[in-house]
Write a structure and sequence with these properties.
The chain has two helices and seven strands, in the order ααβββββββ. By secondary structure, it is mainly beta. The protein is globular and about 60 Å long.
Length: 168
């Protein structure tokens, strides 16, 4: 039994097995299963901030941060707010890129060649008073809902043209 990471890494080699699994009559009704996070324990969650130009005078400035893998929450899950005294908790929709193999110091030109696929995500954040020592406002358990599925890179010809929306 392969882990999801093993399936992603060996995606091409597993093509025949995937096609056999998709034979008519082999599926089960969606209503009879519980969907889980497509990547339940990612090795690393790297996030980019400032990508919406939300800060006056810093438009186009990107900065990165890490989220704990413990923050991952699957489809239908409930975000649990921690007892810490935050000014506000908020969320925003995100396009999540799933990297297909170990990558380091990737050039801008070669970045998309490392993407296995994309999925929906939500970045949940807690904003804390300046005097607080709270530094993990984005990494609480359940603060990274993702899913319900991964669309492989070839199904998303231009990720820069994907419209990310959230509604309740």
């Amino acid at each position: 039994q392969l882990t999801i990471e093993g399936r992603i890494t060996n995606f091409q080699a597993l093509q025949g097995a995937r096609e056999r699994a998709l034979d008519p009559g082999q599926g089960v009704p969606l209503a009879s299963v519980q969907l889980r996070a497509p990547v339940p324990r990612p090795g690393k969650i790297v996030c980019m901030g400032g990508n919406f130009g939300e800060f006056v005078g810093r438009k186009g400035t990107m900065w990165g941060f890490l989220k704990s893998p413990e923050a991952v929450l699957g489809p239908g899950g409930t975000v649990v707010l921690p007892p810490e005294d935050a000014n506000i908790f908020h969320h925003e929709a995100e396009l999540v890129a799933v990297i297909g193999h170990t990558a380091s110091r990737v050039s801008k030109d070669g970045a998309l060649r490392n993407v296995f696929g994309y999925m929906c995500g939500c970045d949940v954040s807690g904003r804390f008073p300046l005097e607080s020592r709270q530094q993990f406002g984005k990494s609480f358990d359940t603060f990274a809902p993702i899913g319900p599925c991964i669309a492989t890179w070839d199904a998303v010809p231009d990720p820069h043209q994907v419209q990310v929306r959230m509604w309740a």
